[in-house]
Specification:
The protein has about 375 residues and is of the alpha/beta class. The protein has one domain: Aldolase class I (TIM Barrel, Alpha-Beta Barrel). Helices cover about 45% and strands about 15% of the residues. The longest helix is centred in the first third of the chain and has 20 residues. The two termini are about 30 Å apart.
Length: about 375
């Protein structure tokens, strides 16, 4: 790859040689690499990014950075899980709880279409009283009224909740949602895929194994998905690497993940009081993720939590995608972090960082 970094001994030196020749690294090597100086780790991640993008686009493909125009729509804020890290959820008794009707969601989709958007991210809380008819009617409505909009919706914890609430096997729920118009599944609710961590921050949410099984089943049914990681709360470095290992293992099995996105926990207005991590820790974790997840083609820069400037820097730490214009966002902003950008803003950021902006769809196909 024509890249050199500072000299190392032992495990880290062998790991660097593997990275620069396109080979897979082990969890033990990942732990060792994590302690590299941040610029050196960034060089290694950038080498992996350039190699991946040349494979994907050929020629000057390494200069392409993609983004999508979509809108986050939270169909309800009612949730009976009560995660300690969430500032968005409400109980049914709260005066500001809501459930959106299909027509209300349709209006939001029409506003997205008016600016050239191609996708909605549709997620909500674990509402205890909504039956399957609400969801299927909503999906049928969106498919009929807005057939060109991809519905990227309902995270794995929601599907585990649906299976229990509807008293229906998981595969049947997924198949019925797919047939009604669901196009792909976001990777929300992964947090850290280690049950000891999950019990501490979200004891009522699905287990790590259940999250992975939703994705495995969805991939088998032809639904592709993203994968995520929220870090910087109660987990250890070993927990983060175990999370990445489980994602990589499932991707080896199914090939169904289109992209990976990580971000730091935003603690404001939540019940989980921990110090907020800075951008250097975010960049370090993203770089390691790009190196370790050698079978996931795309890494998104999380400017929504880190801000546009760090989002730009992240493009030199393994990211090849600037995520979404995100016409609407409610969950992260409820925790006190609010950044907004238009498509023009995103393209300017990408160009200013030395790359070529390209609009894409959910499957990373470039759009004219």
């Amino acid at each position: 790859m024509g890249v050199t970094v500072g000299s190392r001994n032992g495990l880290a030196k062998r790991a660097e040689a593997k990275i620069l020749s396109g080979e897979r690294i082990s969890p033990e090597e990942a732990r060792d690499l994590y302690s590299l100086p941040l610029p050196e780790l960034g060089i290694l991640a950038d080498a992996r990014r350039r190699w991946k993008k040349k494979e994907a686009y050929g020629g000057d493909g390494e200069r392409i950075v993609t983004y999508i125009v979509d809108r986050n729509i939270n169909y309800t804020n009612v949730c009976n899980v009560g995660c300690r890290f969430c500032a968005f959820y409400r109980r049914q008794r709260d005066p500001d709880q809501y459930v959106l009707r299909p027509e209300q969601i349709g209006q939001k989709v029409a506003e997205l279409e008016a600016i050239g958007g191609t996708q909605i991210l549709l997620q909500g809380g674990h509402h205890p009283d909504l039956g399957i008819d609400y969801y299927l009617e909503l999906l049928h409505y969106l498919k009929e009224k807005h057939p060109r909009i991809n519905v990227h919706g309902f995270s794995p914890p929601e599907f585990v909740h649906f299976s229990r609430t509807f008293a229906m096997p998981l595969e049947e729920v997924l198949r019925r949602f797919r047939d009604a118009g669901l196009g792909s599944i976001p990777g929300g609710g992964a947090e850290i895929l280690v049950d000891e961590v999950r019990r501490r921050i979200a004891p009522l949410k699905c287990t790590a194994g259940q999250w992975l099984e939703v994705m495995r089943t969805a991939h088998r049914l032809g639904l592709r998905s993203t994968a995520t990681m929220m870090f910087g709360h109660v987990e250890t470095l070993e927990d983060r690497i175990e999370h990445l290992r489980r994602l990589r293992e499932l991707q080896d099995e199914t090939g169904g993940f289109t992209a990976f996105i990580c971000w730091t926990f935003q603690p404001d207005h939540t019940a989980l009081r921990v110090p907020k991590l800075g951008p250097s820790e975010y960049l370090r974790m993203q770089a390691l993720s790009r190196i370790f997840l050698d079978n996931i083609d795309n890494i998104q820069s999380s400017w929504v939590t880190q801000g546009p400037e760090i989002g730009q820097v992240a493009l030199r730490f393994g990211a090849n995608d600037f995520g979404s214009v995100m016409m609407e966002e409610n969950v992260v902003s409820a925790a006190g972090t609010t950044f907004r950008m238009t498509a023009a803003d995103i393209e300017d950021c990408i160009r200013d960082a030395g790359f070529v902006p390209k609009r894409r769809n959910n499957w990373y196909e470039l759009l004219s």
